[in-house]
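thread: overnight batch results

M.L. [08:02]
morning all. the overnight job finished for the chain we discussed friday. pasting input first so we're all looking at the same thing
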Amino acid sequence: MDKAIKKSSIVIQRHSINIRGKEYCKWIDENYLLVGIGYFYKGEFNEAIKTFQFVKNEYKKTKTSHQASLWLIRSFTEKKDFISGEIEITEIKNNRKFPQKLKTELSLVVANYYLKQNNLPLALDQIQQAINTVRKKETKVRLYYISGQIYQQNNNF
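M.L. [08:03]
and the structure it wrote out:
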Protein backbone atom coordinates (compact mmCIF):
# COMPACT_ATOMS: atom_id res chain seq x y z
CA MET A 1 0.00 0.00 0.00
CA ASP A 2 2.90 2.35 0.68
CA LYS A 3 4.10 1.84 -2.89
CA ALA A 4 0.64 2.61 -4.32
CA ILE A 5 0.34 5.75 -2.19
CA LYS A 6 3.82 6.88 -3.20
CA LYS A 7 3.26 6.31 -6.93
CA SER A 8 -0.13 8.04 -6.90
CA SER A 9 1.35 10.98 -4.99
CA ILE A 10 4.10 11.30 -7.59
CA VAL A 11 1.49 11.35 -10.39
CA ILE A 12 -0.41 14.08 -8.56
CA GLN A 13 2.71 16.17 -8.00
CA ARG A 14 4.08 15.86 -11.52
CA HIS A 15 0.93 16.00 -13.64
CA SER A 16 -1.56 18.18 -11.79
CA ILE A 17 -2.58 21.19 -13.87
CA ASN A 18 -4.68 23.30 -11.51
CA ILE A 19 -5.45 26.72 -12.97
CA ARG A 20 -7.80 29.06 -11.09
CA GLY A 21 -9.29 26.22 -9.09
CA LYS A 22 -10.00 23.97 -12.07
CA GLU A 23 -8.10 20.73 -12.65
CA TYR A 24 -7.16 20.08 -16.28
CA CYS A 25 -5.66 16.62 -15.88
CA LYS A 26 -8.45 14.05 -15.84
CA TRP A 27 -6.61 11.42 -13.78
CA ILE A 28 -5.76 13.45 -10.72
CA ASP A 29 -9.05 12.78 -8.93
CA GLU A 30 -8.66 9.04 -9.45
CA ASN A 31 -5.13 9.19 -8.06
CA TYR A 32 -6.37 10.99 -4.95
CA LEU A 33 -8.99 8.26 -4.60
CA LEU A 34 -6.28 5.62 -4.94
CA VAL A 35 -4.25 7.32 -2.18
CA GLY A 36 -7.31 7.22 0.08
CA ILE A 37 -7.91 3.54 -0.70
CA GLY A 38 -4.27 2.81 0.12
CA TYR A 39 -4.65 4.51 3.50
CA PHE A 40 -7.88 2.58 4.09
CA TYR A 41 -6.24 -0.79 3.49
CA LYS A 42 -3.26 0.20 5.63
CA GLY A 43 -5.70 0.80 8.50
CA GLU A 44 -5.01 4.54 8.68
CA PHE A 45 -8.68 5.49 8.66
CA ASN A 46 -8.22 9.13 9.70
CA GLU A 47 -5.93 9.80 6.73
CA ALA A 48 -8.29 7.89 4.44
CA ILE A 49 -11.26 9.95 5.64
CA LYS A 50 -9.37 13.20 5.03
CA THR A 51 -8.45 12.10 1.52
CA PHE A 52 -11.96 10.91 0.62
CA GLN A 53 -13.51 14.13 1.95
CA PHE A 54 -11.04 16.14 -0.14
CA VAL A 55 -11.98 14.21 -3.27
CA LYS A 56 -15.68 14.51 -2.50
CA ASN A 57 -15.50 18.28 -1.97
CA GLU A 58 -12.96 19.15 -4.67
CA TYR A 59 -14.33 17.06 -7.56
CA LYS A 60 -18.09 17.32 -6.97
CA LYS A 61 -19.28 16.73 -10.52
CA THR A 62 -17.38 13.51 -11.21
CA LYS A 63 -18.05 9.83 -10.68
CA THR A 64 -14.98 9.76 -8.45
CA SER A 65 -16.78 11.98 -5.95
CA HIS A 66 -19.52 9.39 -5.56
CA GLN A 67 -16.96 6.61 -5.18
CA ALA A 68 -15.22 8.67 -2.50
CA SER A 69 -18.55 8.93 -0.66
CA LEU A 70 -18.85 5.14 -0.65
CA TRP A 71 -15.30 4.79 0.65
CA LEU A 72 -16.10 7.40 3.31
CA ILE A 73 -18.92 5.20 4.57
CA ARG A 74 -16.56 2.21 4.64
CA SER A 75 -13.96 4.22 6.56
CA PHE A 76 -16.48 5.50 9.09
CA THR A 77 -17.80 1.96 9.53
CA GLU A 78 -14.36 0.50 10.18
CA LYS A 79 -13.59 3.34 12.58
CA LYS A 80 -16.93 2.62 14.29
CA ASP A 81 -18.07 6.21 13.75
CA PHE A 82 -21.64 5.23 12.94
CA ILE A 83 -23.13 8.72 13.29
CA SER A 84 -20.93 10.16 10.54
CA GLY A 85 -21.61 7.06 8.45
CA GLU A 86 -25.36 7.55 8.81
CA ILE A 87 -25.04 11.20 7.76
CA GLU A 88 -23.10 10.16 4.66
CA ILE A 89 -25.67 7.45 3.80
CA THR A 90 -28.61 9.85 4.02
CA GLU A 91 -26.69 12.40 1.95
CA ILE A 92 -26.11 9.83 -0.79
CA LYS A 93 -29.71 8.59 -0.73
CA ASN A 94 -31.00 12.17 -1.06
CA ASN A 95 -28.65 12.88 -3.98
CA ARG A 96 -30.59 12.54 -7.24
CA LYS A 97 -27.41 12.61 -9.31
CA PHE A 98 -25.97 9.48 -7.72
CA PRO A 99 -25.05 7.16 -10.63
CA GLN A 100 -27.22 4.12 -11.22
CA LYS A 101 -24.10 2.01 -11.80
CA LEU A 102 -23.03 2.51 -8.19
CA LYS A 103 -26.41 1.58 -6.62
CA THR A 104 -25.35 -2.06 -6.14
CA GLU A 105 -22.12 -1.02 -4.48
CA LEU A 106 -24.08 1.40 -2.29
CA SER A 107 -26.36 -1.45 -1.16
CA LEU A 108 -23.33 -3.58 -0.28
CA VAL A 109 -21.63 -0.77 1.65
CA VAL A 110 -24.81 0.04 3.58
CA ALA A 111 -25.36 -3.66 4.31
CA ASN A 112 -21.83 -3.85 5.73
CA TYR A 113 -22.59 -0.72 7.78
CA TYR A 114 -25.66 -2.36 9.31
CA LEU A 115 -23.86 -5.67 9.87
CA LYS A 116 -21.12 -3.89 11.86
CA GLN A 117 -23.88 -2.37 14.00
CA ASN A 118 -25.48 -5.80 14.38
CA ASN A 119 -28.71 -4.42 12.87
CA LEU A 120 -29.61 -7.61 11.01
CA PRO A 121 -33.07 -6.76 9.60
CA LEU A 122 -31.84 -3.61 7.85
CA ALA A 123 -28.69 -5.42 6.67
CA LEU A 124 -30.84 -8.21 5.24
CA ASP A 125 -32.99 -5.68 3.40
CA GLN A 126 -29.90 -4.10 1.81
CA ILE A 127 -28.51 -7.53 0.88
CA GLN A 128 -31.82 -8.42 -0.83
CA GLN A 129 -31.62 -5.18 -2.84
CA ALA A 130 -28.06 -6.02 -3.85
CA ILE A 131 -29.04 -9.57 -4.86
CA ASN A 132 -31.63 -8.13 -7.24
CA THR A 133 -29.07 -5.92 -8.99
CA VAL A 134 -25.85 -7.96 -8.92
CA ARG A 135 -24.87 -9.64 -12.17
CA LYS A 136 -21.80 -11.64 -11.15
CA LYS A 137 -22.66 -15.18 -10.12
CA GLU A 138 -19.91 -15.38 -7.47
CA THR A 139 -21.10 -12.19 -5.77
CA LYS A 140 -24.72 -13.29 -5.89
CA VAL A 141 -23.88 -16.65 -4.31
CA ARG A 142 -21.92 -14.92 -1.56
CA LEU A 143 -24.85 -12.59 -0.84
CA TYR A 144 -27.24 -15.55 -0.65
CA TYR A 145 -24.84 -17.21 1.80
CA ILE A 146 -24.68 -14.11 4.01
CA SER A 147 -28.47 -13.78 3.97
CA GLY A 148 -28.73 -17.46 4.90
CA GLN A 149 -26.44 -16.85 7.86
CA ILE A 150 -28.62 -13.96 8.99
CA TYR A 151 -31.75 -16.10 8.70
CA GLN A 152 -30.03 -18.85 10.67
CA GLN A 153 -29.14 -16.41 13.49
CA ASN A 154 -32.81 -15.45 13.67
CA ASN A 155 -33.82 -19.17 13.80
CA ASN A 156 -35.62 -18.79 10.49
CA PHE A 157 -34.64 -22.00 8.76
